[in-house]
């Protein structure tokens, strides 16, 4: 990156320093581009802060479209190598683990849901191991003795999203890229029919001009109209998520889920209990009701959380569009690219999103894997068509 006449020059500017934006930036820097990431706060300070870090496309197959499952499995398969590269390049640790996920039942309704989930797995060509109550408690003896049975998904993994974001930012800098924090982008600059740069405001309130040939928008759930850009709003809306953070004695080795709740042990000794999904606009206030429900369901599954230290609530905004599928690919203006709307799958889909988007940017040809996620699918239907 170079600075000339009060402006910054880079090949590529990525707007948004969450896991998606940073993964795209690192991939493009690896491929020889000079990359600048612009982030309003600190890397990973948006939805990443409240993300649980579950890498589980199979566990959630019952509620996902086939295209989401396929891209999720693709990205999951990339994770071990992705993490090795990130940790080696950054010198940090991401908290990556491969113990799998347990889905357990603590009442008859839960058992019925697990039977339905197993049928869903069979119909979609996915697998999980059926467990008796004794087998579940052998794996996780601190769970409630009320456990009636469960499933183990061996392929599922987990990671600490906050550590991952920090490592990605450091990896980018190590390779020669730049992360500019405190930069609020407000204008994408177009020359003719092509992007030529952007303008942001720095912490000091002074404008920062960036001259570049490509811009990737990876702004999470930020208000789309906060940036003047030559692209249609894909309909991003925030879905509020709250989770409880606890700390104390290590009670679990696996991610443990029930139809009501999930529990995620963290490498630093914390335990996450999550998470809500709320259509509350841009409200970021933690609520007593969410804490009550999460702790109640968590205690029913893992009674030992009663004695853990309550660290507080983490609140984030998941970026979603109407069909709950990400928007990945070129906007109408040449040189403007989108990587938004990953909803609850941003951390999981980061490796695949970065790789396929980089392929598209380099070749100009849409990878088949992104056909269902291209921005064009959101265009209004012609008159008379639904």
From TrEMBL:
Signal peptide: none annotated. Its EC number is 1.4.3.19. Keywords: Oxidoreductase, Thiamine biosynthesis. Pathway: Cofactor biosynthesis; thiamine diphosphate biosynthesis. It is an enzyme of class 1 (oxidoreductase). It comes from the Bacteria. One of its GO terms (cellular component) is cytoplasm. It holds the Pfam family DAO. The keyword Oxidoreductase applies. GO terms for molecular function: flavin adenine dinucleotide binding; glycine oxidase activity. InterPro entries: FAD-dep_OxRdtase, FAD/NAD-bd_sf, Gly_oxidase_ThiO. GO terms for biological process: thiamine biosynthetic process; thiamine diphosphate biosynthetic process. Residues 11-360 form the FAD dependent oxidoreductase domain. The keyword Oxidoreductase applies. NCBIfam families: thiamin_ThiO (TIGR02352). This is Glycine oxidase ThiO.
């Amino acid at each position: 990156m170079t600075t000339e006449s009060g402006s910054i020059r880079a090949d590529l500017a990525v707007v948004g320093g969450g896991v998606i934006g940073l993964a795209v930036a690192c991939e493009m820097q690896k491929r020889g581009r000079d990359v600048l990431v612009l982030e309003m706060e600190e890397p990973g300070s948006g939805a990443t802060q409240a993300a649980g870090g579950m890498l589980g496309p199979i566990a959630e197959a019952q509620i996902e479209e086939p295209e989401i499952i396929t891209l999720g499995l693709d990205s999951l398969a990339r994770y071990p190598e992705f993490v090795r590269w990130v940790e080696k390049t950054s010198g940090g640790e991401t908290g990556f683990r491969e113990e799998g996920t347990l889905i357990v039942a603590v009442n008859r309704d839960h058992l019925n849901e697990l039977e339905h989930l197993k049928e869903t797995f069979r119909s979609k060509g996915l697998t999980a191991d059926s467990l008796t109550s004794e087998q579940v408690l052998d794996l996780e003896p601190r769970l409630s003795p009320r456990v009636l049975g469960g499933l183990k998904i061996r392929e599922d993994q987990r990671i600490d999203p906050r550590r991952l974001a920090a490592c990605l930012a450091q990896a980018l800098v190590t390779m020669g890229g730049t992360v500019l924090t405190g930069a609020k982008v407000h204008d994408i600059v177009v020359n003719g029919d092509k992007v030529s740069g952007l303008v942001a405001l720095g912490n000091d309130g002074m404008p920062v001009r960036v001259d570049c040939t490509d811009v990737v928008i990876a702004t999470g759930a930020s208000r789309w109209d906060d940036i003047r850009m030559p692209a249609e709003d894909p309909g991003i809306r925030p879905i509020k998520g709250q989770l409880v953070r606890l700390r104390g004695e290590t009670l679990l080795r696996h991610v443990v889920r029930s139809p009501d709740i999930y529990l995620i042990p963290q490498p630093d000794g914390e335990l996450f209990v999550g998470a809500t999904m709320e259509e509350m606009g841009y409200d970021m206030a933690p609520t007593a009701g969410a804490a009550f429900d999460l702790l109640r369901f968590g205690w029913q599954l893992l009674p030992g959380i009663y004695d853990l230290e309550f660290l507080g609530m983490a609140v984030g905004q998941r970026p979603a569009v109407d069909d709950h599928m990400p928007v990945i690919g070129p906007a109408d203006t040449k040189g403007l690219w989108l990587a938004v709307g990953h909803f609850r799958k941003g951390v999981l889909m980061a490796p695949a999103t970065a790789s396929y988007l980089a392929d598209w940017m380099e070749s100009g040809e849409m990878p088949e894997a992104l056909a269902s996620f291209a921005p064009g699918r959101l265009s209004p239907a012609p008159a008379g068509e639904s």
